Amino acid sequence: MGRIAVYPGSFDPVTNGHIDLINRALHIFDEVIVTVALNPLKAHLFTMEERVEILREVFKDEPRVTTDSFDCLLVEYLDKTNVHVVVRGLRAVLDFEYEFQMALMNRKLDKNIESVFLMTSYRWFYTSSKIIKEVASMGGSVKDLVPDVVDRWLKKKFPKYKESSDHLI
């Protein structure tokens, strides 16, 4: 058994920032399990099944990335999979405060859990799933910020959405 980490998130939708972070985590870990979390406090654009399907398509050529989902506490999922490392991305100070709280709570619930934080690449610093959905819902293109599969799914969800963009970051 190699070094395995879990990267949990809502991925609603997955962005190029998420993908960058997963690819960078593969430099540290032998396998990364990308897990779509059910958060009943959030209103999701994509169903859990759609988000898993999108992630599987994005990583279909990367055998070291597996995709899963869970609807329990993260510590319960980690216990079930016998993985003890969580990868999280940080963009700004607000991310740090939230992620620090979550890491401490996870450690309180299970002292064997370690959290590894990776800084978001500067290119994706201001990219978030929330802003992607807002722009796409109003007809703006986010093609350069998401994988092609997400771009296609956004077109299905938002009739006003424009698929192509000549604007690169």
Structure description:
With 169 residues, the chain is of the alpha/beta class. Helix content is 38%, strand content 18%. It has six helices and five strands; from the N terminus they run βαβαβαβαβαα. The protein has a three-stranded parallel beta sheet with strand order 1-2-3. Strands 4-5 form a two-stranded parallel sheet. Helix 2 links the parallel strand 2 and strand 3. The protein is globular and about 50 Å long. The C terminus is likely disordered.
Beta strand count: 5
Cα separation of the termini: 39 Å
Helix content: 25-40%
What percentage of the residues does DSSP assign to strands (E)? 15-25%
Architecture per CATH nomenclature, i.e. the level-2 architecture: 3-Layer(aba) Sandwich
Question: What is the CATH first-level class name?
Answer: Alpha Beta
Class from helix and strand fractions: alpha/beta
Note poorly predicted spans. Answer: 165-169
The total tally of domains equals 1
The main sheet comes to: 3 strands, parallel
CATH topology call = Rossmann fold
Give the H and E element order: EHEHEHEHEHH
Radius of gyration: 16 Å
Fourth CATH level, the homologous superfamily: HUPs
Number of helices: 6
Shape: globular
Q: What do the pLDDT scores average to?
A: 92
Placed side by side, the strands forming the largest sheet appear as: 1-2-3
